[in-house]
Amino acid sequence: MGWWPFGSNKKTHRTPINDPLLKDNRTMISELRDACEMNFDNPEEARRQIRRMQVEWTDASREGMISDVNRSGLEARAFRLLTCSDKEWVTWLDDLEFWKPGWRPEVDDED
User: Fold this and answer.
1) Rounded CA gap, 8 and 23, in Å?
2) Are 72 and 97 in contact (CB under 8 A)?
3) Nearest of 47, 50, 43 to residue 86 by alpha carbon
4) What does the CA dihedral 77, 78, 82, 88 come to, rounded to 10 degrees?
5) pLDDT digit string (tens) for 41-82?
6) Which of 51, 59, 67, 74 has the highest CB neighbour number within 10 Å of its CB?
């Protein structure tokens, strides 16, 4: 019998949104996090993808598609991920506060 009302085996996944006009801050943070977590064991590949994302954020900001506040939050996260050691990498990935919209670096963290 092929009928089963309690779910299916089909896996649903989020399709990437390529139009920055349709992206919000949570989506951009989620894309950054996904790129990092997919490469949790290869930080250099993730850093390459982060640098590519930074170019996209700069272009979107220049064209007025994302606000300066959202871009600065993304850039602050990218800075931490690009400058941390490989040992610190997993710590940043596991920090739930780091991935929440509105996260700001601590004052002594900027030095």
Assistant:
1) 29
2) no
3) 43
4) 20
5) 999 999 999 999 999 999 988 988 888 889 999 999 999 999
6) 74
